[in-house]
Sequence to fold (238 residues):
Amino acid sequence: MFAAAYEAAMQVLEGKAQLTEAQKALAAEYGIADRTANGYIGCFLAMRRGRTFKTIVSADGLRFMLGRIGEGGPGNLMMALQSVMNHIMYLQDITGNEPGLRRVHAEFVGRLREMAAFDEASFSFDDQVTKALADMPEARTRRLRQAPAMPEQQIVLTRVFRRNPDVIAEVLLLANGVCQGCDQAAPFLRADGRPYLEVHHRRPLAEGGADTVENAIALCPNCHKERHYGANYRTTQQ
Fold:
């Protein structure tokens, strides 16, 4: 039934069938209620679209769904895993912890790591630019002629920190529209009228820095970039 639900969901995604038709066909084939058929197909559709779903699915059913979606490549699987985590968090507020679903999620995160390329390029890109700047103009021109116009795309796994929005808000309010690096007014206003400043952590989160007001400072874009890339930023206040 899960396999049939997947095929039905794919028909809907590809525009070959209407959702209501697919639901009725699945319900009739397996003798289940329309609502149940809607739940099965809806789960697949939500996972393919990266949306939260509320239908409760067993761990084995979830494993089957992720396996089929993963056949479409790491991009599809990454989107589905985000949808699954949203589902787990939704259920946690209702039924408590969901260890079975979390194990399945962790299993497919491991598969995704095997499928996707890790973001090593970002660490070496600055070095590549430096090398290109120092290269002979003829060599650079030759590479430009041979390079494809459209950049290559790559699925990337990267770690991000879920930052506290209250810390950001408090730091920006304390700055009151003035860069705490150069003491100049914010360079422009956002669409909603707020001064544009960026919140920088004195000790980076990736290096064990705390996500607190005391460890943060509001900077204009120039000062923020200097803290990360400037020649003397290590000797200045972070």
Q: What stands out?
A: The chain has a mean pLDDT of 86. Strands lie at 117-118, 156-157, 198-201, 216-219. The chain has ten helices and four strands.
